[in-house]
TrEMBL record, chains A, B:
Belongs to the class-II aminoacyl-tRNA synthetase family. NCBIfam families: hisS (TIGR00442). It is found in: Cytoplasm. It comes from the Bacteria. Its EC number is 6.1.1.21. Gene3D superfamilies: Anticodon-binding domain, Bira Bifunctional Protein, Domain 2. This is Histidine--tRNA ligase. GO terms for biological process: histidyl-tRNA aminoacylation.
């Protein structure tokens, strides 16, 4: 029986045109991170399951990770996310290296998902984190970096927005204003997470099942109705918690001053579940109403290193997956046409006697910094140009017996149709042609 | 109990300095492949085990792969090599796309190895393949590419050599000259593979256990003693098989003409085991006598697509692992110093009032194409320069209350110690400074 030619469920084959798209995206990610002086890192594809157990909820461990026992009876998993790995790595070195620590990575990750649009089992994720105590500034820089990255793809505030909240404020609302216990708070987080995904009746039902006091319920509903930063700040002011929200107010002011105002939208329903966040939490959303989905999520945390018995190192970071980002760029027509390879010179020859010379010329052209495609076999003259087009060549060269004997080759510019005879001893002329 | 901070056995954490080394190596690989007009591809981290079973020996399946059953009862494995994946991908598209198909990839792979110098459980491997019928030329181009890559690292014929053989010639020796049966041939391949790793007595013993005819044994020993192309060709000429070795002779002649003569060494013990090769087989070796190891291996094959019931598509390719290559570059002092990050401008401020301005300036500098590091918090003047050094900055800027009020900032060149006042309205002057 013939083998299946398709990739494993929920994973992708990246043929060259797909790989050029991936490279385009990854290069923008790297350039943005490096423009902000983030340094790249990488970790293992496998980690011990204990690491994920310590950091994440049981749901992830039980249902979503690819875990198994290795041949040495270690219980291991393919990395479903990068945060535990980066925390483990920072735990090793944070005492010795200068802070803030600004690191990025673009690992391949696997989760046991039911494949659907925007969600696959294997994806790549751009991860950026700033570790070390620098107050609100590191949160602002993370937001600035995300905006920089999206701008570098040609996306602006017509295309995306950053929905943002602050876990400190959520805590003020739940603990100080509503005065609810921890168990109810836990349930409220889950409800808030779902608030925009369910119908009003469904939300109403979930709230009523909590049996909150009427005051607490009113506060909660008022909270959920907040539409923007101004409403949030006056709500807190009214309740006597104006001063406690000064940090978030400062973030709002500075981001406005540095040109992020059009991107940032206060959203009370962004809490990022029961995750480890303690400061800001945010999600980047596609503004296309038919494609409303989170492209990126992140936030600030007080101490990811706790599980390693290390002193607290606060941080802020985000993860941005390649699948939803690719959809986003295509939907908004922001993806350049990368369907064809780009080659500077396609070197062909018409006689078997010319094979060695063609190899030699191809390499000389490479040494000048150009991409050269050697035809490797003799190509009939009438096929030369259709081949050149298929392979994405800008120029083509032709080398026959006559040329070989007289020491030159013909070079044609495929755009202008101009043709030039270039002597083997005068390749600098070729350089000028190819550079034009 | 605190969690283990170390990576899983046989895998590596790449801290920024390590990641810069990895990026340096990967960028050279990409540049070389693209200079030869190879196109990038990527495949899934997981494949079904059936794919590896069909392609590889049982040893790999039973002892070396990370395999497990997924939650849908599919028997899957983390990719231990890229060849089965690329064969699967080529099988999907080879009918529609122009040939030759020239593809490269740098996947992360896992094998269940006993970790040791040069051998880890997780590594990255540069894979290049040319698919499609182009005779000896594709073999020659693969050898040219490998040489180009090593040259681009600064390595030359003092540092490495390419040991090469041809499976067609091995077949002539075993089948036509020695006239042995398939089972003995199978054993001979294993012996040849080990010939240079065992002592002469050990080799002698293995050969005698085969009970070859004395003629066959003499031919085999003569074969193993061949030192170079010339000896090989006269040996075959003598035995009446001169013409049958014309293809390999042609490869030797053309590679000599195009400057590869100093790199290529004929070696009868290179056969690449029982693998699927049918044409040339080769291994790149470190010439340092204390570090003799294969850096790269590959060869030509008649039909990788057989397992998919596809028509034959011949090809030639190689795999080059990052672990041994890194050792090679370090041993030969060919690795540049990448211990520090490189930052164009470290932007610091002395007053909380300047925080927004510093964010704004940092971004403007990024828009000019420079890497800028925002200090994020106020930095005491005396710490500015030691920080700048730690973070690898070329220039540093200082912004205090006075500067803020008067609309400029100070920029210092850390190499020349020169200092400049740059007005916020004249950032083009900063561009000139940073470009210098």
């Amino acid at each position: 029986m013939a083998l299946n030619k398709k990739p494993y469920k929920g994973t992708r084959d990246f043929f060259p045109a797909d790989k050029r798209v991936q490279d385009y995206i990854f290069n923008k990610m790297r350039s943005s991170a490096e423009a902000f002086a983030f340094e790249g890192y990488e970790g293992p594809m496998l980690e011990e399951v204990a690491l994920y157990k310590a950091k994440s909820g049981e749901e992830l461990i039980n249902e979503q990770i690819y875990s198994f026992e290795d041949r040495g009876n270690r219980f291991v998993a393919i990395r479903p996310e990068m945060t535990p790995t980066v925390a483990r790595m920072v735990a090793q070195v944070h005492r010795e290296i200068p802070k803030p620590i600004k690191w990025y990575s673009i690992p391949n990750l696997m989760r046991y998902e039911k494949p659907q649009r925007g969600r696959l089992r294997e994806h790549w994720q751009f991860n950026c984190d700033i570790f070390g105590e620098v107050g609100r500034s590191s949160e602002i820089e993370i937001l600035q970096l995300i905006t920089h990255l999206f701008n570098s793809f040609g996306a602006n505030s017509e295309h995306f927005e950053i929905l943002i909240n602050d876990r400190e404020i959520v805590n003020i609302v739940f603990n100080d204003l509503m005065k609810i216990d921890e168990e109810t708070s836990y349930k409220l987080y889950k409800i808030v997470d779902k608030a925009k995904k369910v119908k009003p009746e469904g939300l109403e039902k979930m709230i009523s099942e909590l049996n909150l006091s009427s005051e607490a319920e009113a506060i909660f509903k008022k909270y959920l109705s907040l539409q923007n930063f101004e409403e949030l700040f006056s709500f807190l002011e009214e309740k006597g918690y104006g001063e406690k929200s000064n940090g978030f107010k400062e973030l709002f002011q500075i981001t406005s001053e540095i040109g992020l105002k059009d991107y940032l939208v206060y959203d009370p329903t962004i809490v990022r579940g029961l995750d480890y966040y303690t400061g800001i939490v945010f999600e980047v959303f596609d503004k296309n109403p038919e494609n409303r989905r989170a492209l990126c999520g992140g936030g600030a945390y007080a101490n990811l290193l706790q599980i390693f018995n290390e002193n607290p190192v606060p941080g802020v970071g985000f993860g941005l997956g390649d699948v939803t980002l690719t959809d986003f760029l295509i939907t908004h027509k922001l993806m350049p046409d990368l369907s064809k390879n780009e080659v500077d010179l396609y070197l062909t020859f018409q006689s078997d006697r010319a094979v060695a010379k063609n190899f030699e010329l191809a390499n000389k052209v490479r040494e000048m910094g150009f991409k050269s495609l050697n035809s490797l076999e003799t190509i009939k003259f009438k096929k030369v140009f259709s081949n050149a087009d298929k392979f994405g060549a800008r120029f083509v060269s032709i080398l026959g017996d006559k040329e070989l004997d007289e020491g030159f080759f013909q070079v044609k510019n495929l755009a202008t149709k101009e043709s030039f005879d270039i002597k083997f001893s005068e390749l600098d002329k070729l350089r000028e042609l190819l550079n034009a």
